[in-house]
Specification:
It is built from two helices and 18 strands. The strands form three sheets. It has a six-stranded antiparallel beta barrel with strand order 1-2-3-7-6-5. It has a six-stranded antiparallel beta barrel with strand order 9-10-11-16-13-12. Strand 9 and strand 10 form a beta hairpin.
Length: 290
């Protein structure tokens, strides 16, 4: 996975990349032609967040209301208590983690604080959802920032996307290259992962960044890993495994986990309900899903 950055960057954790200017914004050049511009929605940093070691975003579901407690999304491997083991699912765990909410230019709009980890796992996907003590309406009133909308639809190959890192305040531009039946990394297995085209050369600290459809402006995935050294299925070197068990290694290629399935597991009031009929997120051992 794109490792969280902990304390001083003693080993850089960036696959050899050189870091300079953490407030630099890198965005794609404007598309030529007014028609192309009309088809592409402006994507900036508004609604993204910076964690102590990762990136993330303030998100709302298709059925969220302004008065619902807001949610922040990042990776499972960014969880402050440590990476969940394979098979582990964490729900309703108290948390007071803070997040720096960013404005459109990447500056700080204010600080948000969690009340609990609503859901976290690294099984099948790689996600943590924090519930905040403030509503979307309160955040809008205080900070003039809207949450990003989570798409309820499976992403499509070829779609233009932007990976927006609140930690580095950098935007990566590429396309959806395709999908992976299973992505194996160390002891973890993720299903139906999204593979980027090469220009999304994300680095450590981009973990948890929202992957935004450049046309709709909706979040379709969450950035989580890439093959750094060409190794096969080791940590920081995920491999692709197809339906027949064939293994493919793509050194330098990066991946995200789709998020549309999350929308099927959220009941009114932004409450995670794993017992909903269309919810396929992993459930805690021995749980009925509620």
């Amino acid at each position: 996975m794109k490792r969280p950055l902990v304390g001083v960057l003693t080993t850089l954790l960036l696959g050899g990349a050189t870091i300079a200017g953490t407030t630099t914004t890198a965005t794609a050049a404007p598309q030529a032609g007014s028609q192309a511009q009309a088809r592409t929605k402006a994507v900036d940093f508004a609604g993204t967040v910076a964690l102590s070691n990762c990136s993330g975003s303030l998100i709302r579901m298709p059925n969220s209301t302004d008065d619902d407690p807001a949610l922040v999304m990042t990776n499972g491997h960014c969880l402050e208590t440590g990476m969940p083991a394979p098979g582990d699912v964490i729900t309703d765990q108290p948390s007071s983690r803070s997040f720096t909410l960013l404005n459109s230019s990447g500056g700080s709009a204010g600080t948000l604080r969690a009340t609990k980890v609503a859901y976290s796992t690294m099984t099948d996907t790689d996600v943590t959802l924090y519930q905040l003590g403030t509503s979307y309406a309160q955040i809008k009133q205080r900070y003039h920032i809207d949450a990003l909308n989570l798409s309820g639809d499976h992403p499509t190959a070829g779609t233009a996307i932007k990976v927006v890192s609140g930690y580095w305040k950098k935007i990566y531009t590429c396309n959806v290259d395709g999908f992976v039946y299973q992505l194996h990394e160390g002891d973890w297995v993720w299903k139906d992962s999204l593979r980027y085209t090469p220009s999304c050369d994300v680095i450590g600290g981009t973990s948890g960044s929202p992957v935004v459809d450049a046309t709709t402006g909706k979040v379709v995935a969450i950035n989580n890993t890439g093959n750094e050294n060409g190794e096969q299925c080791t940590e920081n070197n995920p491999c692709e495994v197809d339906e027949n068990g064939n293994v493919t290694v793509r050194q330098g290629i990066n991946y995200a986990e789709e998020t549309y399935g999350i929308t099927q597991c959220v009941a009114p009031g932004n409450r995670i309900d794993l017992s909903l009929p269309d919810c396929t997120l992993p459930k805690p051992a021995g749980s009925d899903g509620a």
